Amino acid sequence: MPGTLGRRLLPLPLVLLGASALVFLLPRASGLDTTRTVLRSRIADSAPDPAAAERVSRELGLDGPLWQQYLLWLGSALRGDLGLSFSTRTAVVPQLVAALGVSTLLTASALLLAGLVGIPAGVTAARRPGGPVDRAVTTLSVLGAAVPEFILAPLLVLVFAVALPLLPAAGWGGPAAAVLPVVTLALFPAALAAQLTRAETADVLGTLHIAAARARGLSERRLLWVHAARRSLTSVTALSGMFFAGLLGGSVVVEVVFAVPGLGRLLYDAVLAQDLPVVQGGLLALVTIAVLTTVGAEVVQFALDPLARRAAR
């Protein structure tokens, strides 16, 4: 286990270094003039004075070669300094920390809800493949995976905030305000978890290991929920890291529709305002979280699955 963990962690610095270079180069590759963007945000002038542009370029270290600009930016990022927002003239890091806290809570709640709904549904459906429960779970999971968030979110607002005024339509001020965003974000991973768990559990129920356990007289309930379900959870666990990072970065629609002050909303506003420090800092945070959560999910998978541990030796 420590050796496997070490092999997984070894390439992480190179992955993060490569990701930081891509994040740094992204605005340049899109043809955006950084100096003019800064001046436009400060003086709202589409044609800034060349002398002012030269002064700002020297001030921000943008007059040097590209590799020098990257090293300066990377050194500041490693010290926890991502600069000032072009729009608000405040430090980027506190904005990211506040937005990440909201998005992490939203994403973790959605994943928890998806697991509580999708995994038991998939295990129950696998008990009798082709039966009524299996057909119902399969139909609902396909429907859940097919409905996009930009359709589901307004639909939930119309039903539960307008027609039946039970929940607030927007905001992030308490548990009631979190219900609709969490449900919207949880639908897709819940559908995938149900499909994946159903397929994995059905495969495990047909193995010799389960047949031997059944011959020893174990009850069907114990076989299904203890032996088969535990083995089938390894695939869902392995994907949970990617689910978390994907939901964290892909929650833009949900956060914009429900006015949630999370990272997706922050990045959406920053892109519209061409606020490069916020965009770069947000993307760098997302990549770092995606890499770390993927490795963490693999560690949990190894802990749950003895076959995976033996295969890694």
Automatic annotation (TrEMBL):
One of the protein's GO biological processes: transmembrane transport
A single GO cellular-component term from the record reads: plasma membrane
- Provide the membrane topology annotation: Multi-pass membrane protein
InterPro entries in alphabetical order: MetI-like (IPR000515), MetI-like_sf (IPR035906)
Pfam families xref list: BPD_transp_1
User: Which parts of the chain span the membrane according to its record?
Assistant: 96-119, 140-163, 169-188, 239-263, 283-304
**Which superkingdom, per the lineage?**
Bacteria
| Main location, first listed in the record | membrane
For the keyword Disulfide bond, the answer is no
The UniProt record lists the ABC transmembrane type-1 domain at 100-301
Which CDD domains did the record assign? TM_PBP2
Which keywords does UniProt give here? Cell membrane, Membrane, Transmembrane, Transmembrane helix, Transport
Where located? Cell membrane
Task: Give the family per the record.
Answer: Belongs to the binding-protein-dependent transport system permease family.
Q: Could you identify this protein by its name?
A: ABC transporter permease
Q: Which organism is it from?
A: Pseudonocardia petroleophila
